[in-house]
Specification:
5 helices, single chain, 0% strand, 140 residues, mainly alpha
Length: 140
């Protein structure tokens, strides 16, 4: 996604409705918000940001109709791209809750750091048909 191997592409997602203030925030303000929040969690140094792009996607959840049954063909194609790791709902085109989305991102980072290029470890996350969160009895 970047031509300079010394740089990385980092995506930040904000979910909101079209009538929310966040949706209509000017691009520059939205980029500044993302940079500020990424700095707050010590993920980046804002001075290192080279460029930002805002893409607003209405109805961002994956659609499971039409040719979705052919998604395996797309997956097989993109999985051959060694430095492309699809993560989260939109990258993987399947329902993940936030925990699963973060786990796929972590698995991608682990793969990149270790030089692993196959993606099976990422696709193995959230393969169950259902997900149950357990309540912590100590939190009650």
């Amino acid at each position: 996604m970047v031509t300079d191997p010394a740089l990385i592409a980092l995506g930040v997602e904000y979910f909101c409705n079209r009538d929310d203030d966040l949706w209509s925030l000017p691009d520059g303000d939205l980029k500044a918000l993302a940079i500020r929040e990424l700095q707050q969690i010590d993920l980046i140094d804002g001075d290192d940001v080279v460029k930002g792009t805002v893409v607003r996607v209405p109805k961002a959840y994956p659609a499971y109709f039409g040719t979705y049954a052919e998604f395996g063909l797309i997956r097989a194609h993109v999985d051959r791209i060694e430095n492309l790791f699809l993560v989260g709902r939109n990258g993987m085109h399947r329902y993940n809750n936030q925990d699963h989305s973060m786990l796929t991102a972590k698995a991608a980072i682990d793969s990149i750091a270790s030089g692993r290029t196959d993606k099976q470890n990422i696709w193995n996350i959230n393969v169950d048909d259902e997900y149950h969160e357990e309540r912590d009895p100590a939190a009650a």
